[in-house]
Design goal:
The protein has 207 residues and is of the alpha/beta class. The chain has a single domain (22-198), classed as Rossmann fold (3-Layer(aba) Sandwich). It is 39% helix and 10% strand. The chain contains seven helices and six strands. The chain has helices at residues 4-11, 56-73, 87-103, 115-124, 141-148, 177-182, 192-205; strands at residues 46-50, 78-82, 106-109, 127-129, 153-154, 173-174. A six-stranded parallel beta sheet has the order 3-2-1-4-5-6, with helices on both faces. The longest helix has 18 residues, at 56-73. 30% of the residues are buried. The mean pLDDT is 84.
């Protein structure tokens, strides 16, 4: 069980589960010199979207947040998309380009990339977008991978009135895109060693 929300639901059935958090799904590739990697552009205010494309009300929320950032700061955003091909992604790209026609940002769509290159993108981006509801953040391998890489994340569905039941690198999680884009990037820190020790400890308790 990786999040408190699901533990509470199981407790209602008489089960008493523990919490074993997730670790990220992208290993650290080291400090690749991105300036010599011609396929990946380097910009200030570079924002990573990693995962399935947004749609419906969530799409509107993401686009509005990006538009508000550009309007409030007077700065463009350069977005890197790492997500599978779909009709929703094409709608997302079209909406972003409509915003950037005014604010001069860019959209770079890579579909899928090799894990080592994605690790380097996370290391060099300014911030990332987390797709989760606040209470489900602990189930998102993509969000945790960004946090392990020290990347500040913007959580559009979090308005701070909702409970964020998540402790790993809490200082990197922001409800406001302006805050996320100005936050300090941190060093890589894997959750795996801690979670592995916790898992072994729990196994030993039940031998």
């Amino acid at each position: 069980m990786s999040i408190a929300f699901n533990r509470q639901r199981l407790k209602q059935t008489g089960v008493e589960p523990g919490i074993l958090e997730l670790f990220g799904n992208i290993s650290y590739a080291g400090n690749i010199d991105m300036a010599n990697t011609s396929t990946i552009p380097l910009h200030d205010n570079q924002l990573l979207y990693f995962g399935g494309a947004p749609r419906g009300a969530y799409l509107d929320l993401v686009v509005k947040g990006i538009n508000d950032f550009c309007e409030d700061t007077g700065k463009p955003i350069h977005i890197i998309l790492i997500c599978p091909e779909s009709e929703n992604k094409q709608v997302f790209i079209r909406r972003l380009k409509e915003t950037f026609a005014i604010y001069k940002g860019t959209v770079t769509d890579y579909g899928f990339v090799e894990p080592h290159l994605l690790s380097s993108i996370m290391t060099h981006c300014t911030a990332g977008i987390a797709r989760s509801e606040p209470y489900l953040l602990g189930k998102s391998g993509t969000a945790i991978a960004m946090l392990e890489h020290g990347l500040p994340i913007w959580l559009p569905k979090w308005n701070r009135s909702k409970k964020l039941d998540f402790s790993f690198r809490r200082e990197l999680i922001h409800s406001n895109l302006v805050e996320a884009m100005s936050a300090q990037h941190e060093e890589y820190l894997s959750q795996l060693p801690f979670i592995a020790k916790q898992f072994i400890s729990e196994l030993n308790k039940h031998q």
